[in-house]
Structure prediction request, 120 residues.
Amino acid sequence: MPRYTLLLYSPEADETEQAQRDAEMPLWNEVTESLRQAGLLVAADRLHPAARATTVRVRDGDTELTDGPFAVTKEILGGYYVLECADLDEALKHAARMPLARYGSVEVRPVVEPSSAPSP
Prediction:
């Protein structure tokens, strides 16, 4: 069955907004458990804030490290789900169930399966 990654983006939250988001944890738990029970959930994790990220670039053999995310943006990657779904339509249906879709965005991207990856 094809795998799809749901990348969860939202604006960084101040203290009040974070408290509101934390209050949504029962919704997140409900969605996650329903995906698990349906046999679709491969993995899911919440990420630390973008300020904890380190971006690595190698240019002309030199490694450059930058604190923070790669780009300045209003929305940051906050977590992800990997689902095994019958097709893209099913993955999109589950992406719309994510509580964060109401104030952020959920990018759905197919995972390249080893058997379909191009050979070097």
About this structure: The chain has a mean pLDDT of 89.
